[in-house]
Design goal:
heterodimer, A: about 200 residues, mainly alpha, Four Helix Bundle (Hemerythrin (Met), subunit A), B: about 100 residues, Helix Hairpins
C-alpha cells in the first residue's frame, strides 16, 4: 500500500469516527441515523481496502439499505415524540460513568498503540475476499451456521411482527384505566402532557 | 505503512464511542444505534485480522454472521420500541419499568 492507501485509510477512518460521534451525540434520532449511515458507508470503504469486497457490498445492502431505513421508518412512526424530553436527572452520574468508560478505552489504546507490532498487510493474490472464494468457504465450512442464520432471521421476523402488532382491537377497546401507562390519557394530553404524563405515572406507584 | 494496528485502534475508538453512547444516552433509538456502532467496530477488527492472516476466510465469515444476527436484533429491538411506545408513550429507557412492581 502506497501513500494512496494511507490517505484512503485516514479519510475513511475520520469519516467513520465523525459518523459515530454524530450518532451518539445528536439529540434528534434522525440526525443520529444519518450519522450511522455515514459511519456504515465509511466502514464499507474500509472493507474494500481490506480485500473484503463481498462484505462491503453486504454492508451497504443490509446496513444502509435495510437497517437504517428500518430505523427511519420507526422514527417517522413515532413522530416528534421520538426526540424525547431533555432531562437533567442523573446527568452527572451518567456523564461520569460513560466518560470514565470512554476515557479508559481511549487510554488503553493510547498506551498500547505503537508498543505492539502490528501485523503487516502484505500484498495478496486477487482471489482473496472475492465473491467466488468467499462463497466457496461460506457454502462448505460455514454451511451449518449459514442455514441456522436463516432460521434465526425467520424467528426474528415472526417475533418482530408478533411484538409490534400487539393485541387486535387495541384501539377500539382500551384497557381499564387502572392499568399502568393509561393515566397519560388525560384531557391535557397534548404536546405538553405527552412529555410529562408518563413520568408522573411512572412514579405514582 | 498501514498495519493491522491502525485498523484495530480505529475499531477500538469506534467501540469506545458506541459504548459511551450506550451508557450515557437514554433514548431507546439512540441506544440501539450505539449498539450498531459497537458491532460495526467489531466487524472491522475481524476483517482487518483476516486480512493480516489470509490463510482462510474465517474472519470475514464471522463478520458475515454478525451482520445477519445484527439484522435480526434490530428488527426485534425496533418492534419492542414500538410496543413500549404504544404502552407508555415514551422512548426513554427509564420509563420502561413495567415489570418493576
Amino acid at each position: 500500500m502506497g501513500w494512496v492507501g494511507q490517505v484512503y485509510f485516514y479519510v475513511c477512518a475520520a469519516v467513520a469516527v465523525l459518523g459515530a460521534l454524530a450518532t451518539v451525540v445528536s439529540r434528534n434520532p434522525i440526525r443520529g441515523a444519518m450519522g450511522l449511515l455515514l459511519m456504515i458507508v465509511a466502514i464499507a470503504g474500509l472493507f474494500l481496502g481490506l480485500n473484503a469486497q463481498f462484505l462491503a457490498a453486504i454492508q451497504l445492502i443490509v446496513y444502509a439499505g435495510a437497517i437504517v431505513v428500518l430505523f427511519l421508518f420507526v422514527i417517522m412512526l413515532l413522530g416528534p415524540s421520538a426526540v424525547g424530553p431533555r432531562d437533567k436527572r442523573g446527568l452527572v452520574g451518567r456523564t461520569l460513568g460513560g466518560g470514565l468508560f470512554g476515557l479508559t478505552m481511549l487510554a488503553a489504546i493510547g498506551v498500547s498503540f505503537g508498543k505492539v507490532h502490528g501485523l503487516a498487510l502484505h500484498d495478496l493474490d486477487a482471489d482473496f475476499g472475492s465473491i467466488d472464494a468467499f462463497g466457496r468457504v461460506l457454502f462448505s465450512d460455514g454451511l451449518v451456521p449459514f442455514e441456522l442464520s436463516s432460521a434465526l432471521l425467520m424467528v426474528a421476523v415472526v417475533g418482530a411482527v408478533a411484538v409490534a402488532r400487539g393485541k387486535q382491537g387495541d384501539e377500539a377497546h382500551p384497557p381499564p384505566s387502572g392499568m399502568p401507562g393509561l393515566a397519560a390519557r388525560s384531557p391535557l394530553r397534548g404536546a405538553l402532557a405527552d412529555v410529562q404524563a408518563p413520568r408522573q405515572e411512572g412514579h405514582s406507584t | 505503512m498501514i498495519t493491522s494496528d491502525h485498523y484495530v485502534a480505529l475499531s477500538a475508538v469506534l467501540f469506545a464511542i458506541g459504548g459511551t453512547g450506550f451508557l450515557v444516552r437514554r433514548n431507546v433509538l439512540v441506544t440501539l444505534m450505539s449498539i450498531e456502532v459497537m458491532l460495526n467496530s467489531v466487524n472491522l477488527a475481524l476483517v482487518a485480522f483476516n486480512r493480516a492472516r489470509p490463510a482462510d476466510h474465517a474472519g470475514q465469515m464471522f463478520a458475515f454472521f454478525i451482520i445477519a444476527a445484527e439484522a435480526a436484533e434490530v428488527a426485534v429491538g425496533l418492534a419492542i420500541v414500538l410496543s413500549l411506545f404504544r404502552i407508555r408513550r415514551t422512548v426513554r429507557t427509564d420509563d420502561a419499568d413495567l415489570l418493576k412492581n
